[in-house]
Amino acid sequence: MKTNKFIIAIILITTILLTSCKTQQRQTQHRVAQHVSVCQLTQKSYDAQPQFSTMNISKMTMSVNYGGIQFTFRSSIRIATDSILSISIQPALGIEMFRAEFTPKGFIVYDKLNRRYSENSYEYIKLSWGLDIDYKAIEALFSHRLFIPKSTDPDEICKDFRIEHMADTTSIVSNTPIGKYTQQFDIDINNYRLTMSGLQYENQLVMAITYGMLKTFDKILFPETVQLQTTMTKTDVSATLNIEKIRFNEPLNISLISTTRYQKVGFMDLLKK
Question: For residue 175, what are the CA distances in angstroms to 4, 28, 96, 164, 210?
Answer without folding.
Answer: 39, 18, 42, 12, 22
